[in-house]
Amino acid sequence: AGDPLYVLLCCWLAAVGAGLLKSEEILEGVARLRISNDIEFEEENFIAMMNEAREKRAKLRSPVPSIPMVVRAEKALEAIYVCCYGRDPLEEEDERLLRIILNAVFPTVGQPQIETIINEKAKRVAEGTDEIKISEPMPLSKEAVQMQMKDLQFLRQGDEKS
């Protein structure tokens, strides 16, 4: 069910963005991606948010918190689920593929732990007890909106020339 680029973006966000981005920010962004299919825009938006967080931390001289890899793997799975599955159940083949990608991206977590994370997620989804907390999407920054409008104008210009 998951577009490979979306899955990789979710893994990258959890691996690199943990400690810089809040879980809610990641989940809101990947939920928007599921609807918009504009991966370039969301990637640029995530990079801008991470850079902003780094700058804030530098000004405050506060280090990026150390997030354990197992937590990063869990966040990646949450993001993949929100982005690629919505509320659909995870099938056996999906679980197999998720094990492969999460073991590849987070090898230090270990196969047994990855297996547990995925099995627990699949069980919660099947039982209807999986509570993904996504608040109302936050309004985008003025810069992000301007960037999206520029892209839209560029695309419209291309259509007019065709």
UniProtKB/TrEMBL annotation:
Keyword match Signal: yes
Protein name: Photosystem I assembly factor PSA3, chloroplastic
Matches recorded under InterPro entries: PSA3 (IPR037736)
GO biological process entries: photosystem I assembly
Keyword Transcription: no
Domain of life: Eukaryota
Signal peptide feature range: 1-23
Alphabetical keyword list: Signal
Provenance organism: Olea europaea subsp. europaea
